## 1
Amino acid sequence: LCARIDGIAAEIGHQNILRLCENVDLVRSTAEAHGLTPLAQLTRSLEAALARIQAGRASSQAALAEAQAQWEAEKRNGGRDALAAARNRLVQARLDANTWQQALADMQGNTGEVQHALGRPDLALPLYEQALQSYPSSAGSNVYAIERVRGDMALVYRARGDRARALALQQQVHATLLPLLGAQHPDVREAQSEIAALGAPPARPAKRQ
């Protein structure tokens, strides 16, 4: 089981979709066969991320390259209407490419959770770090996913004895999620509980933009 998860982590950077799918399916079936329900649920999240990657990867990159080329051509030779159409197409192509990038970040974060659930925090931490770097934006729908990754990272640092870094991450999670989700949301309460366990008051909530 661990070897299969290691294979998933190794292939994320190379984006070998077929091998990723095979490894995720084997992890899920093995976890279900041994009654590891939480792990099986996490692999379903991996499968969802893979589905998004498969749907958008190749087509979005090709569309972005084509839209960029058309935009450059219209800037040189096109009229106002053609230039506006090319610009709109380029904007949409960039949005589609961001969707693929977000799916990759989700995949990295979810794989980190699987490693963490198996008691392998040293393998989970770099995946969490990669996920934070991969998210195309820290705004909008990405906020919750990013803060969940930060919370998971904080748990790793706390287990390793790095309480200062764990505290800083949990305070950031709490400050960001509190105004968005409210004080009773499980993730907000978990962050507050961790902060208390680390011996400090919660940070002030982040101001809404």
## 2
Amino acid sequence: EWTTRLTQSSGQIAQDQTMIGSLVGGSIYSTADQQLGQMIDAGLLDRKLAAEYFDRVEWIEAQEDPFGFVPALIMEREIMAMEMERIRQGILSGDDDRFHTLLDLAYDRGEGLPPMDVEELERQATMMDEMFADLVDAAGDPDRARGLATIEAIQAGVLDAETPTLMSILMPDASSFLEARTRLETMLSDRMRIMQAVATGRLDIESI
């Protein structure tokens, strides 16, 4: 029962459309999966328990993006666009405190960043939004390996630039984020296949 609740919670938390929510949901699921493995090893799983588990959590795997990684990237794009607009408004009004606070949070990654007037900020904000659009498109690729390779290429292009940009300072580590998604989806799919097979009697529990 506790393992089932953990699994349900992982799917619910991951739907809050934030990167941290997806990662926390995935972490909770990893814990639930570990507990399931321990139950199986201890001989505590039977057809009834497997069927109850599968019926109550199958909705998670049935989703195209079980842990909400793409919606999280979309939300990250929207949040970043709003932040750029706040900074732009501040610079227009002669108050660049928000911009400098952002640089302080970036530590040494902000070194070498060119002077930022409104025109330069708008240019870089547009580039950043286009980059996020490309990240989202790649993350939505049904071929997970191809999508991840595209994201790695996007990141490399941004981080290898000679002159630091707002993108190189602020972009999330999308490749590691999507690597976590692939790992979690594989873990979930493998576990659900086993639980369904046990529940239907197609797989002998003793053989697991």
## 3
Amino acid sequence: LEIPTGGLSDWTGRKTRLIIARSFHAVGTVWFVFLSSPLDAWIVGTIWTIGLALQSNTDTALLYETIKERGGTDEEFMRHRGNALGWRLKIGACITLFVGLIASIDLRLPLYLGVPITLVPLVCSLLFTAPAPLKRHMRPIEKLRSISAGVVEAKNSREVRWLILFSSCMTISSAVWYWQNEYYTMIGIPLEWFGVFGFVGRILAAYG
């Protein structure tokens, strides 16, 4: 979904695409609260996937273009981007710390409390001021030619194929955390402690 949503960003603008992405995420979160069947899980997963594809690199591009429009440097962009990532991990760690305790009261309670939190980025996206594009974007036919050239290069280059394989393996391995709660349950860790382990992991990532 990265390629078509990237084209959508060029046509609609960074801010509009980010608003659409956060709307998908909000709808998926609300649906997840009332999850009652495997079909619901598939639908929520699809909605979240589309939202993530829409958001992917759009927020970064919006930040970069905003800083450039104000006369900033690449170093300033990297500093702001790093700070944003660090604060995201720190805030996520603090929220995670209490998730296990709240879930021990009611398993759906963290989901209910998460809905208004999900709406905060959507409201922030609506308040953004979109900067002017830094360069003229390619026409659709030029995009298709560029994509075709990339596919041919990947097909003919052994090094690129290995990079794709490595990236795929890293993506799959990073999804292991989806099963950590089942692992904690299997080895007998109390539900109240789930958030503590999540807190430690995010703090280490923030300062690592």
## 4
Amino acid sequence: QQADFALWKSAVTESTDATARRRAAGKLLESGWGVSIDLLTSLLKKDDQPEVITAVADAVSEVSNPPQAIFNALLGAYERSADAVRESLEIAVTQYPPAVAIPEVSAVVHDKNIAVADRVALIGLLSRFVEVETVDALIPCLDKQEPAAVRQAAGKALAMIAGVDLGESRLRWENWWERHRNAGREGLLAANITRLQQELKDVRKRNR
């Protein structure tokens, strides 16, 4: 175990090859060893090594049941990272069950001490989860006291999830949600399918 751990640690932290780093991070994840999870958690905090953060995120994206122990570290890295790294982290976060991810992401989205640009990015991350709880979390972001960028991002995210564009009016969304919430996740997915079908029709019309 010690030899394998040392080998994988060396590869993920010192290799100049992206594939080798990702594979080593994957081996650490697969091992399930406490020391491996601790290492991956600490690597996600190395903001001066975005290539290492990307390797860990990519490895998480490739497993079906990632350890919950590193979720908060992934989310923290997402808050701090540049857009290029965030792409990998976003995919990694969405590997987690909605019941795990949505409350944690929502809490940060609603934290007014977080920079507006980061809250906007996190709203985009939250919108990857087409769930009732996502809509519940996004509607308060339309409050008039919220920054314009937050309201705009929340309105766009809600429109994408719900398949209907009600702008940035909290009252309109609350009224709509009161009528449609009981349809649950299935209703949201059906609305998404309808929206995508309409978008496809529009594309075909423009290409004629």
